[in-house]
Input
Amino acid sequence: MQPDDFTHPRTASRAALLAAMFASALAVAACGGGHDDAPAGSPPSSSAPSPAPAPSPAPAPAPSPSPAPAPAPSPSPAPAPAPSPAPSPAPAPSPAPAPAPSPAPAPAPAPGPVPDTGATPDLGPNVLVFDPSTPQATLQAKVDAVFATQQTNQFGTERYALAFKPGTYKVNVNVGFYTQVLGLGASPDDVTINGRTQVDAAWFNGNATQNFWRGAENLSVAPQNGESLLWAVAQAAPFRRMHVKGSMTLDPGGGWSSGGFIADSKIDGNTGSGSQQQWMSRNAQFGSWSGGVWNMVFVGSDNAPAGDAWPNPPHTTVAQTPSVREKPFLTVGSDGRYAVVVPAVRSNSHGVSWLNNNAPASQTVPIADFYVAKPADSTATLNAALAGGKHLLFTPGVYHLKETLKVTKANTVVLGLGLATLIPDGGVTAMQVADVDGVKIAGLLFDAGTANSPSLLEVGTANGTADHAANPSSLHDLFFRVGGAGPGKADTSLVIHSRQVLGDHFWIWRADHGDGVGWTVNTTRNGLVVNGADVTLYGLFVEHFHEYQTVWNGNGGKLFFYQSEIPYDVPNQAAWMNGGANGYASYKLGSQVTSHQATGLGIYCFFQTNPQVKLGSAIESPTAAGVKFTRMATVSLGGKGEITHVINNRGDTVKDGANNAYLAQ
Output
């Protein structure tokens, strides 16, 4: 049982958090019964353009004790502020609200090519490019200055990318909000940092549950003096295509943490998850792994922990990754030419892609084939570039879109640097992708505008039937936000219509704190709607939407790892009824679905506005023979509210005094 003064980890003092961590006990639940469900609600309609006939000129083929050692308590720092319905972090200053949309600049002419392939592209003032000749003091001063700006800048508008050309560097890089650290080599081992590339939680009194929106990729880090690389993060903080020449720690030394995602990375030593509530690892290679709280999932990862004792420890291990494309990444050659490498799809894979000749075929797309976007560019300019066959590279910044970005050509690459952020103005959909082959969208934050949008990103067209099995579209490190930086509204954040889409790491978030937050303020319906058949997703995080968090209507879907929180701010039960049922399930599988696989699901409630609110079942699904949900966990955080069952009226109740339930099915 949690102590009476328990508050959610995103707002609690460290002392209360530690008390909660050591007070609760794991409970393994299993019981029978079930029922068939009504079909899911209708998703927003799509107005995406029809596929263009011509191909792109640049085609691209409070945790409970577990077997893992619990972190040792440390002296409590000054307490964080008391919780409220829309808590704000401390001791950071109040987050800056998103700026009001500024008038659109005059339309620019259709873009011509960027400088020739041998030239260095203009990546804007917020991409800091370093080479080994940079004096160490200069390098350290520059990365420290970025961190000083970004350490507490949770809802600010600044965005940065710290890019390292191939070579060796002695530097300590602290990674703050909206900061991406990336190597520019062909392999992670082409760039080595002797020192730290780390995320701590000092700004929030050792609580890492708000360490969002940052990342590191495509470099190696050699921790010094016996230190472990610290990556104490929450959601939307990918650690991708990395090599840690030592050990790694995922929690902030005893405080709460709620991540997280590792992919295509090698950690030579032990990876200690500590207080991490949940974690997704895909195609990683570990020296060893220790720890686990509620839901730790390993897919295609070498030397991952065995999963045969679930839920104690709560490890789910899948030997092979069925089908995945690694995220496209920016490189610079020895001749100084920039390009984007687009990996091919791998099937039934395990381990990292860049070791032992394990790399799949890839295409190298010269930077001249990209339109390099800046925040001042008009939407008309960006659409003209796309229509003309250019790929898009978004440099760091906030982009206000007066109209929908339309990706109509097959094999288009849209890549963001430094958490580039797209805000739709006037209630438009930020981006629509036609039902074409091989589109890659990566590294972007979609932030809802003040006028309600039917969706933020749509992939494919409604009722599209094109088969993309030979060349699927893929989505990587895509994050969605409604509220927090200001009042935002969107019916649905992400809609996937196309078949065979591969999704690799999403955080889809209706804000529970920040600016413009409230039950009738940052209004929504669903986080994710999947209508396409044979869609595969890895690492899906969806939180706080008003109705179903996830609606999956397509057959043949596969999901590996799910983390979801029900909305905190439900005012009362009457305001949150689904017909005669209490509340909306987090995960809703359409009643017409006959084949679906999902494993490693954790669904939590924290009804802080009204702890009397109940949710009937965390998951609702038809009972067809081809539908399989395995390894499900529900948690009542601090006992605030109730989830009566895990799936289809099966599984134990979680509530005050009985905080955890597990169902293997």
